[in-house]
Amino acid sequence: MSNSCSSIDQSDDCQNLIALAEYFRLCNPPKYKLALKCLMGTRKLNVSLDVKVHCLFLTGKALMMYTKNAIEARLYLDAAYSTMKSMGPAFDERRLEVLCLIAEIMMEQQHYDLLKKLLKSEVQASLRYPNLNGKILIFLAEVHTKLHDDQHAIFILTTGCENFQRTNNKLLEAFLLIAKTALVSKDSKSSPADLSTLIGRICELISKLDSAWPCVLNIKCSCFVIQLCYFLSRGMIRSSKVCLKQLQTAVQCLTRPFSNNHQLANLPGAMWKFVTPEIMTAITYVLTVLSHVQFCQFDKVNKYYGTALNYIEEIRKVSRNNPYAITERGSHEFLEALEVVLQCENAQINLVLGRPLECVNVLSNMIEKLKFDTCLQDEFRFSSHMVLGMYCCMMKCYDDAENQFKESLVSSTDVDMNLFAQCNLALVYVMTNKEAEFFKIYEKIIPNKIITHSVPLKAIAFFITGLHGYIVSRIAETKTNAEQCIVIAKTEDLTRLHAMSLLLYSRAFHCLQVPILKESYEMTKRSGDNTLTIWANNQIAGKFLYKGFITNN
């Protein structure tokens, strides 16, 4: 009797349990526990292999999305993947769908080498399914970036773009190009022309698509974010001002509801997005703060700094208070990183405004946050040492500043970041009259020999060389280097560097040139830097004292 019962096909019962699980999932509020019980109940039923594998897939997916039990979710999905692989080409598409879910879990678990091998084995099979092929290539590129192999990641994305260009799949090509552009823009060796070529191709692709689609708006916002980050990192202030306005306008469009998603359901890549509209808004607030720091508009910095922090906290609050919210992988960590970026900028602003105590308070909060997150520590180790070094310089603790800048050199392999640290170290040696140490690193910061696309770094190198020339009484050298710094700063609207170079130039003329004094004073007022204002006032006072001395004698 038991043998006859065990041979009965229970597929109908299984379908009923799946339907009931879907009903519980769609309830308001959702009843995820009941849905999972229904799906797990299908394991005990006698069903055909294709139904069984479908149940494994649904259960694993539900565990992954609605619980924190990633280990059990992966067990179900691994079982589904292995079974589908043994069932032949008919199950290729569904197997690749399962693979994408497994990839999400393995990325979270940081099993990068194993995942790389798994994804590579399925690239060929995925070519028949553009949507899945695009996902697998992006996962594979992400794995390579996590393994610090950006060049291989760029190669993978380039190959994918070429394939989608041949098949005339504009949307997927645009998404892969965005990922490639983000990686290219990170490289210090990438020129504005390199970025312009990639952005131009993306704009060409999305111009042929409906601009109201959420996926197209997401691509457009991502373009502006990458461009703005690049412009800010290279000190291209004029371009940054234009790009910031474009980003703010695009994000407002992105956050508007779109009611025709069902029309896009079958279009490959149409339901993709790099980040949610909420996260994109948070990024925009943070970039607005960073932009106004470089524009020296510190009143706006204070306004948007508070707004950005409040918005980030609001996203966290919604996630905490809503037990049914589905958080995308990496969202929490990304918000933490955005908050640290804001704190790092705020610490530097307090130094500019001559508030060392406030700077220390912000740094303490930032370091406390970094203490418990090793990933954030790796990302912000360089910035932390640099800001601490700047603080030590302000407090005239030059030995401590030197140690901090040396630590920052060890903590980064980026060419521009290392050059910036070398410039700060050279400045410490100039201020402490350590000639031997200065000339040891001087070869690395000679203005006409450094190779960089960063405009401020070139200007800083000229300023340091000019300042050193003034200290050692080579006034002609000071004037030449200060003039070069003025030209660069004026061209790109680098207000503080412009003010500093004018003050140095004025000093080379013993503060007797009234037009230069006047221009430097006006520029220091625009810069908002209290230290530079004191320097300018000191030069003006020195001029009148000197004039009075000449008159009396």
In a few lines, what is going on in this structure?
This is MAU2 chromatid cohesion factor homolog. By secondary structure, the chain is mostly helical.
Describe this structure as you would to a colleague.
It comes from Rhabditophanes sp. KR3021. This is MAU2 chromatid cohesion factor homolog. The chain is an all-alpha fold and about 550 residues long. Among the domains are: about 100 residues; about 110 residues. Helices cover about 75% and strands about 0% of the residues. It has 26 helices and no strands. Helix 15 runs antiparallel to helix 16, helix 16 runs parallel beside helix 18 and helix 24 runs parallel beside helix 26. The longest helix has 24 residues. The protein is elongated, with a radius of gyration of 29 Å. It starts with a helix and ends with a helix. The relative contact order is 0.04.
Are there runs of 5+ residues with pLDDT below 50, and where?
A: 1-6, 549-553
Estimate percent helicity: over 70%
Largest sheet: none
Reading the helices and strands in chain order gives HHHHHHHHHHHHHHHHHHHHHHHHHH
The counted number of beta strands is: 0
Average pLDDT reading: 87
In terms of DSSP E residues, the strand content is: under 5%
